[in-house]
Amino acid sequence: MRTRFRPDRQLTARMALTVFLLGLVYVVFVAVLISLLKSWVLVVLIAGGLLLAQYWFSDRIALAAMRARIVTPEEEARLHGIIDRLCATADMPKPRVALADTDLPNAFATGRSSERAVVCVTTGILRRLETEELEGVLAHELSHIAHRDVAVMTVASFLGVLAGMLTRFMFYSQMFGGRRRDGDQTYVLVMLVLLVSAVVYALSFLLIRALSRYRELAADRAGATLTGRPSALASALTKVTGEMARIPTRDLRTAQAFNAFFFTPAVGARPSLSTLLSTHPSLQQRLDQLAEVSAELGEAARGS
């Protein structure tokens, strides 16, 4: 999909490298399972089927999980108007527009392709942001679609779940279906599978988190460049991050499964996640980059 969003070759290279490394990790993982077990084929087929289903229906799954619905221009004129202007500026097809009725101030993009893409915002973010701030957030989300990193993250995130699913299956199949084996042999086999799966999951987790952090920086940069108002996006980031502290902890925990896709992570004022484990760069890192973009664009000079 050709758009006026600048191609981000570093993001493309990182996505390709992440997918390659994840694929390599899982090839090794399956090879180890083949050498240890005889019942791996069915599990791999089931996992592959689930992966295809998640990739094919990722937009529906995400909207259903957030209890969001597609809205028309008549229902949300302001939201559609902003997206219409941004898509015209970016010369890209307009995605479907969805609204999630929750006080959590956030937004995300999903969908396997530009034809299936959806930009979803919450009622919480609509109520809190000014039009220019909301424009910056939506430009950020549209850049995810233009860069195709939404589909890559969908596949990469699922691969991280695969190891855990295989581990559970192998554990129970050995415990309940492996009675013919010697007890010590069964125990050693289960421990080996658990160990290999844990290593695979940890590697996948770190690779996905690293890609997630970089793609958010790339989207900030692309969105701010498209609108020409990095300060509006910086204001939105600051405001939404601050408002997270007002959201009940129970609601934050419910939404944390979507953190890798959200505009800002659903965490409180003092997140306990370390840099390696976080899905997003720190607020300060994002603001510093936007300040650099602002200087490059000469935003201050135009404003005066």
Rg calculated over all Cα atoms: 21 Å
Number of helical elements: 12
- Give the CA-CA distance, first to last residue: 36 Å
Mean pLDDT: 82
The beta-strand count equals 4
Structurally, the number of domains stands at: 1
Q: Largest sheet, order of strands side by side?
A: 1-2-4-3
Beta-strand fraction estimate: 5-15%
User: Helicity, in percent?
Assistant: 55-70%
As residue ranges, the low-confidence spans are none
Protein name: Protease HtpX homolog
Transmembrane segments: 12-34, 40-57, 150-171, 186-208
InterPro entries: HtpX_protease, Pept_M48_protease_HtpX, Peptidase_M48
Cofactor: Zn(2+)
Layout: helices, strands, pairs:
Blueprint (H helix, E strand, L loop, with lengths): L8 H28 L3 H17 L1 H8 L2 E3 L6 H14 L5 E5 L6 E4 L7 E5 H6 L2 H17 L1 H29 L5 H45 L2 H14 L5 H7 L27 H15 L1 H5 L1
Parallel strand pairs: 2-4
Antiparallel strand pairs: 1-2, 3-4
Helix pairs in contact: 1-7, 1-8, 2-7, 4-6, 6-8, 6-9, 7-8, 8-9, 8-11, 9-11
Describe the overall structure:
This protein has 304 residues and is mainly alpha-helical. It has one domain. It has 12 helices and 4 strands; from the N terminus they run αααβαβββαααααααα. Strands 1-2-4-3 form a 4-stranded mixed beta sheet, sandwiched between helices. The longest helix has 45 residues, at 183-227. InterPro entries: HtpX_protease, Pept_M48_protease_HtpX, Peptidase_M48. The chain crosses the membrane at residues 12-34, 40-57, 150-171, 186-208. It comes from Dactylosporangium darangshiense.
